[in-house]
Amino acid sequence: MFYRFSAFWLRSSTEMFCFLRPVRRLCLEKVSPRWFFCSRAFSGAEAVNALRPFYFAVHPDFFGQHPKEREVNENSLQKLSVYLENLQKPGSKSLKPTQLTFYVRETDQNSSDGQEPFSTLGFRAVKFTLHTRDLLSTVLYILNSCSLSVEHVQSLNSNVRPQPPKEAKRMPDRPIKWDKSYYSFTGFRDPDEDLEHVSKMETTLTSWLGSNGKRAIKKLENSLPLRKELDRLKDELSHQLQLSDIRWQRSWGLAHRCSQLHSLGRLAQQNLETLKNAKGCTVIFTDRSGISAVGHVMLGTMDVHHHWTKLFERLPSYFDLQRRLLLLENQISRLLGDIQVVYIEELQPVLTLDEYYSLLDVFYKRLLKNRVPFHPQSLRGLQMILNSDRYAPSLHELGHFNIPTLCDLANLKWFILTRAQQARENMKRKDELKVIEDELIQASTKKFSLEKFYKEPSVSSKQMVDCCKRLLGQSLPYLQGMHLCVSHFYSVMQDGDLCIPWNWKNGEAIK
Fold first, then answer.
1. How deeply is 12 buried, as exposed, middle or buried, from its count of CB atoms within 10 A (0-12, 13-18, 19+)?
2. Neighbours of 481 (CB within 10 A)
3. Could you give the CA distance from residue 16 to residue 89 in angstroms, rounded to a whole number?
4. Most-buried pick from 48, 107, 124, 443 (CB within 10 A)?
5. How far is the C-alpha of 505 from the C-alpha of 75, rounded, in Å?
6. Bridge-partner residues for 98, per DSSP?
7. Which helix (H) or strand (E) holds 266?
């Protein structure tokens, strides 16, 4: 399933763009095929289609076992969507260079290029800075940066001429390197100077807050009516349907969230008794409809009301499956020395209840067939999560075991028993860090008079503790009354939330 980013920037297919100036065409020749210079401008829809291999390689849902990488890709895709959207706005001639980081999976397209080494986990990190001025050059730059083929872009750009025009034939084999005086005289921006400035500039916490604080305050003030409306809608629906909670899987904006609640509210007016089947449940707006592995009702934001209604109608049968799943977890636990089988939402792929039950069932049948004797209660207090990866078992830093369903069961016993003590120590350290983290969050919230202080799931307790300790040593009046999120990057969200990296730096920016 492709990430539905086309909704962010897809615009009318009739919207066209001017050709690049000849000098820009020369500068881009190094990274673009010759047919690029004689083709028509890209539309938003064509850009989406051209980037499909890229989306497939970086889609967050493929990084379920790697929450940090998943969060980085999700954040970078949001920033990319804003960049592409701004490119399509009339009169946008100069955009601020945007630095992006993606973890790129090994796919058929990039498995043999050998340009960047893949880790043993099957992905590699790619960093690049967008400084392009039109859709087509941006698409090509992204694909080239990720070592993905660009040949399909030519077929998408249907008006490509078989032969370049005469002026293109006279182009030299390498781009022209213009003297600095040329840019001073013409007023054009020097692309080398832009890149040099980006590479030398080191963003610091105080400099970034000083530059973006007022913009964040304005956005936050503008978002206050929507925040109140969101709280009202959420409270009304939770009470009306007797729900435990209403949550969102993605970092959608307030307007988007309110729209989703309005849709659920309209459905409740039409089918109230059916929706009351969700009594006591948590409803999550996400990418697809179904019941999650932990029993939450997932409402796909792109699905029509008919699909939602069918889901609520089938809830009683799902509750029966959930009871059988709990029984299966207990049976596996008894066979493995009373180790607890858990599903951790932040660290595992988003699985439906049916998918998770099938995963457990496969592992349980293998355990019964290949009896591996564990001493009863020998592993009580420890935790394990099951996954479908082909990799060997591992011990997570948080103290739980990652166990593949198809792992070698004879070696599994030895692996768990030899690392049981380390697992207990990791769990104890996790609990201690959590207590310290909560105390530091409260202290930071109070010192800076923050309206809200939170972190993204990919930020560990250890990282959050380090971040808060250093924050408490600063004087940051810009933060009063703000919503502050600790993440992996600097950003002002559309509703005024400030995102700062957990490993922020301070001091004067290097210029």
1. exposed
2. 13
3. 11
4. 48
5. 20
6. 130
7. helix 254-270
Tell me which of 435 and 140 has the higher pLDDT.
Answer: 435
3-state SS string over 213-224? HHHHHHHHHHHH
| Residue with more model confidence, 110 or 405 | 405
Per residue in 357-377, pLDDT (tens digit) is: 999 999 999 999 887 778 888
Highest mean pLDDT among 27-31, 104-108, 120-124: 104-108
Instruction: Kindly report the number of other CB atoms within 10 A of residue 243's CB atom.
Output: 20
Contact criterion met (CB below 8 Å) for 20 and 96: no
Residue 31's SS3 state is: coil
* Spatial contact of 339 and 416, defined as CB atoms under 8 Å apart: yes
Please give the Cα distance from 29 to 398 (Å, whole number).
49
Residue whose structure tokens are 């920016």: 509
Question: Is the separation of the CB atoms in 139 and 153 below 8 Å?
Answer: yes
Cα dist from 373 to 200, 337, 360, 376, 378, whole Å: 60, 8, 19, 9, 11
Quote the pLDDT of residue 17. Answer: 34
Average pLDDT taken over every residue of the chain: 79
Q: Which residue has the higher pLDDT, 125 or 8?
A: 125
Q: Could you tell me if 54 and 148 are in contact, meaning their C-beta atoms sit under 8 angstroms apart?
A: yes
Integer Cα distance of 361 and 354 in angstroms:
10
Instruction: Give, rounded to a whole angstrom, the gap between the first and last alpha carbons of the chain.
Output: 43
Name 452's bridge partners: 483
CA angle 239, 244, 249 (to 5 degrees): 115
Torsion of CA 36, 38, 44, 45, to 10 degrees: -90
- Spell out a b/e string for 15-53, using b for 16 or more CB atoms within 10 Å of the CB, else e: eebeebeebbbbbbbebbeebbbbbebbbbbbbbebbeb
How many residues does this entry show for the chain? 511
d(CA 219, CA 208): 16
- Amino acid residing at 297: V
Q: How far apart are CA 503 and CA 493, in angstroms?
A: 19
Q: What whole-number distance in Å separates Cα of residue 104 and Cα of residue 63?
A: 10
Confidence of residue 14 (pLDDT cuts 50, 70, 90): very low
CA distances from residue 424 to 349, 421, 475 in whole angstroms, order as listed: 25, 5, 39
At 330, list the tokens: 């207990």
